[in-house]
Amino acid sequence: MTAGIRRGGVLIAIMALPLMIPVLIFGVATCNAATGGTIPFATPFAILCALTLIFAVIGVIGAAAGLRQSD
Domains of the chain: which residue ranges? Predict the structure, then answer.
């Protein structure tokens, strides 16, 4: 999508930032729970696993759409 754009790196960073923030938040919450925090470990870990699976599906669909558009 950004191969033909001169400043494509900035666009990729802006598009990926909303996908990184929830992973960062729940990753920190999982680490905090693992070290003896106030919340149980399973809750943020399950959400982190769900986000990983959702983004894996979105990534495959996005890659397929990008390859189709490149023709």
Answer: 18-69
